[in-house]
Task: inverse folding
């Protein structure tokens, strides 16, 4: 038996090492993922993050291996796996909670308006606001007041289209630089408004490290879906050119491709075009995202039936393999810590700032669930705490291997029914990480 990835410290310290009891029958924990490899069998404990390699003989007698009991891979038949998961995560939260309350990640909406008119945009029907220069100055003051004393401040420019009102970004960053703050920024943008001058400013003033840009298909599909407000322009070519300029400026770019069964053929063609243009550039990553239909704070997949969802997943898996071949995506390693937060919404160190200075906890909820204002220390604690309320668990949670990593919040705008397809997708992602971690382990071992 070989330890490919060790148990994380919090699990090692809190759980200890149980021993086999005479007469007790044992089973694999619900949180174990198995993956056969040429050398034997990989076993991954999602709760403890331990990844083991069993040789072929050991794999034949899994329930006989006492070391698997000591490492919580095997548990008694009557063991309550969910209870253990809750206990470990509760301890991890207590250990990780800082006594100092600070915010070091600020998502700033420069505007809720946009130069594109995407048919699926969740901002449809919402207030279209622009941050004023005066508000920008007060945002900078808010950041200075609430920043941690030593940690780097991280800004995320969001919208609408943040570059539609980039002047306020200048103001905020100039003030932070004058005060000597150590900060960097990221951005979610459609990429259209970048030019040489803004890219220079991105590096020198905004300290921009990465940009997420959505491209939903090849030229004709993209230009139709984005429906930019400008006439007689080839937005597709312009955005691809801007991506190239960003990469040349050493700014990372994540290309998100929203997919349904209806546009998969075209997205597959897009991937080939991206591969020819950007393949093997380590600053660029391209990935697919199953498109959802936003409606009154609820979401549902366009692919309504289980069969359609499975078909879409199968094609996305195949496309992932092609993205990897082209050098447009790389697998992730096994995490070194437990998942304690879903996103910015349930993190005490994140805040959303709207164009008019209101405070929230979710970048997709800019008109509702706001709890305060940059000009006041008063907060609506009911609204603030509402994001911490979990969604009721379903029957499938009992035996789901992904359960230790799954956090679903009641007010989340992205909540959807837990389906067989999305559970399977999580397992596929974890198996990719297992295999990648194993390849790294073998490489280091053979050096």
Result:
């Amino acid at each position: 038996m070989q330890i490919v990835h060790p148990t994380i410290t919090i699990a090692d310290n809190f759980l200890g090492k149980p021993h086999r009891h005479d007469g007790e029958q044992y089973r694999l924990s619900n949180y174990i993922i198995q993956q056969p490899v040429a050398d034997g069998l990989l076993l991954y404990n999602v709760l403890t993050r331990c990844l083991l390699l069993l040789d072929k003989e050991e794999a034949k007698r899994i329930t006989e291996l006492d070391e698997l009991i000591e490492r919580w891979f095997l548990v008694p038949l009557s063991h309550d796996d969910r209870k253990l998961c809750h206990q470990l995560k509760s301890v991890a939260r207590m250990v990780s909670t800082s006594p100092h309350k600070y915010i070091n990640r600020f998502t700033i909406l420069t505007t809720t308006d946009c130069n594109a008119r995407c048919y699926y945009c969740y901002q449809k029907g919402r207030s279209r606001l622009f941050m004023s220069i005066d508000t920008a100055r007060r945002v900078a003051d808010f950041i200075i007041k609430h920043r941690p004393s030593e940690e780097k401040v991280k800004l995320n420019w969001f919208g609408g289209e943040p570059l539609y009102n980039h002047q306020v970004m200048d103001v905020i960053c100039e003030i932070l630089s004058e005060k000597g703050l150590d900060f960097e920024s990221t951005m979610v943008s459609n990429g259209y408004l970048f030019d040489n001058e803004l890219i220079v400013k991105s590096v020198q003033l905004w300290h921009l490290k990465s940009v997420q840009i959505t491209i939903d298909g090849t030229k004709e599909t993209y230009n139709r879906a984005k429906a930019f407000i400008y006439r007689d322009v080839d937005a597709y070519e312009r955005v691809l050119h801007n991506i190239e300029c960003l990469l040349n400026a050493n700014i990372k770019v994540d290309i998100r491709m929203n997919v349904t069964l209806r546009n998969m053929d075209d997205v597959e063609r897009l991937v080939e075009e991206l591969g020819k243009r950007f393949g093997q550039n380590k600053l660029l990553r391209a990935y697919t995202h199953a498109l959802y239909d936003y409606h009154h704070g609820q979401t549902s997949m366009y692919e309504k039936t289980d069969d359609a969802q499975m078909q879409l997943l199968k094609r996305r898996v195949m496309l992932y393999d092609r993205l990897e071949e082209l050098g447009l995506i790389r697998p992730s390693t096994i995490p070194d810590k437990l998942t304690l937060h879903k996103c910015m919404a349930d993190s005490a160190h994140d805040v959303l700032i709207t164009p008019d200075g209101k405070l929230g906890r979710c970048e997709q909820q800019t008109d509702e669930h706001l709890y305060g204002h940059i000009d006041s220390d008063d907060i609506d604690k009911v609204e603030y705490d509402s994001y911490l309320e979990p969604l009721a668990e379903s029957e499938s949670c009992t035996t789901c291997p992904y359960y230790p990593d799954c956090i679903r919040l009641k007010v989340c705008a992205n909540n959807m029914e837990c389906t067989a397809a999305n559970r399977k997708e999580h397992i596929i992602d974890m198996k990719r990480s297992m295999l990648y971690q194993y390849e790294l382990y073998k490489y280091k071992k053979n050096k």
Remarks:
- The mean pLDDT is 91.
- Residues 194 and 342 are 31 Å apart (CA to CA).
- The first strand starts at residue 2 and ends at 5.
